[in-house]
Amino acid sequence: MIKKIVNHSIIYAVLPKLPILMGFFLLPFITPYLTKVDYGIYGIVLSLVTGITVIKTLGLDVILMNIFIHHSHGRGYKVIWNEVQGFIFCWSIILGVITVLLLLAILPNEADDNIWTIILLTTIPIFFYSSLQIISQKYYQLAEKPIQIGLRALISGVINLGISYYLIVFLRLGYLGWIWSFFISETLMFLSFIYPIWIKLKLVPNFLFRRKVMKKYLKISLPLVPHTSAFFLLDFSDRLVMLNLGVSTSNIGLYDFSYKFAGYARVFSESIHQASTPLLIKDFKKNSNTDYLRNIIFLESYVVIFVSFVLALWLKEIFEIMVKNEDLRSSYKIGVILTMSYAYKPMYTAMATVFYYFERTKEFWKISFIAGLLNIVLNIILIPIYGFEIAVITTFFAFLFIGYSGFYITKFKKLYNHEFYPERWVLYTCFLLFLCYFAKDAHYLIKMLLTIVFLVFTLKRSMALIKRMK
Fold first, then answer.
1. How distant is the alpha carbon of residue 125 from its chain centre?
2. What is the pTM of this model?
3. What's the per-residue H, E or C state across 247-304?
4. Which residue has the higher pLDDT, 337 or 49?
5. pLDDT attached to residue 118
6. Is the terminal CB of the chain with fewer CB neighbours within 10 Å at N or C?
7. CA torsion sign, 75 to 77 to 80 to 85?
C-alpha cells in the first residue's frame, strides 16, 4: 500500500507539476514583464473559474467511484457512467452561462478592453470540455493508471508554459498570455481524451439518462456540493471579497502572487490525497477494524507538514532568488502562512476515506461549508479594519477547522473508532507555523539547523510507523 501511494503520488505530483516547476524557474524572466494589476486581474478570473469548476460534478464523482469499485470487472459501470456524463454535460451548459454573466459583473475596469476575449477563452472549456475531462480523469484514477493522467498533464502543462512565456515576454500581452495559454492547453487536453474514452472505451455521454436514477444519485451526491464549494470559499473567494471591499487590483495581485507560491505546498499535499484516497477506500474493505488507516494517515501527516514547514521557512530566500520584481517580492511574509495552511490535508483524507466508503456524504458539509462561510464572514469584517493581509490568518484557521473538527462534530468515530489525536496535530502544526514565521528573516544557518532538526524528527517518526505497518 505504501509503495503504491508513493508511486501514484509521484506520478500525480511530479509529471503534471513539472511544468509548474519549470514555470518557477522562469519567474526571473517573466516577472519583469508583469505587474500587480496583471496578477490581480488573472487572480479574479481564476477565482471565479475555480469556483465554477468545484461544483461542475455536483458531487457525482463519488457515484462514479463507488460504481466502478463494485462493478469494474464487467461492463455494468459503463451504463451508469454514460448517463452521469450526459447529465454533467447538460449541467455544464448552465454553468457556462452563469460564468459569462458573473464575469461581466465582476471584472475590474482595467480589463474592459479585453472583456469578451476573457469571457470566450474561459467559458468555452466549461461549456464543452467538462464532462469528458471528469470521466477521463476519474477512469484513469480508479483503474490505477495514473501515468495516463500524468503524461497528458505534463505535455499540456509544457505547452501552456511555452505559450504563456512567448505571449508575456515577446508579445507583452500581460495577463492575457495566461488566459490564451490556458484555453489552448485545455483544448489539447480535451482532444487527447476523445479516442481512448469516447471511441475505444465507449464511455460516451448518454443524454437520455433516466431521471429517477439520477435523482437517486443526486440525493447522495448533492450534500457534497457545499463541501466542495467550501474549498472555493477558502481558496479563491478571498480575491472576490477583496474586490467587493474596494481593495485595489494591485493589492489583490500581491495576495494572488503569494498564493501561487503557497500552491507548491498544496501541489504536494493534494497529490498524496489524490493518489491515496481510492487506494485507501479499496483497502478499507479489508482493514476497517484495524489501525492501518490511522497509521497511513499519520505517516502522510508527518511528511506533508514537514514539506510545508521547509517551504515556508525558506520562502524569503526563494523569493529573493526567483522574483525579479520588488513589488511582488514583498509578499513573501503572507506566503509563509499560506504555505503552512495546506498541512491539514492528510487528516481530511482520513475522513474522506471513511465517509466515501460508507456513502455518508452528508457528514462533509457540517465542517467544510461552515469553515468556508466563516472564512468569508471574517474577511468581510476584518479586511476593512486590518487590511487584505488578514485574509491569510482566516484561511489558515479555516483549513485547520476542515482538517480536524470532523473528528469531533461528525459520526466519524462510530464508523472508525481508532483515535487520531487531532488536538496534538493542531498544536504541532500551529507550533511549526509560529516557528517558521518568526524565523522567516533569520540567518540561513539558523534556518538550516531548524530544517535538519525537523527532518530527523520526521524521519524517526515515519520509520517507526512504517515498521509498525509491516
1. 19
2. 0.69
3. CCHHHHHHHHHHHHHHHHHHHHHHHHHHHHHHHHHHHHHHHCCCCHHHHHHHHHHHHH
4. 337
5. 95
6. C
7. negative
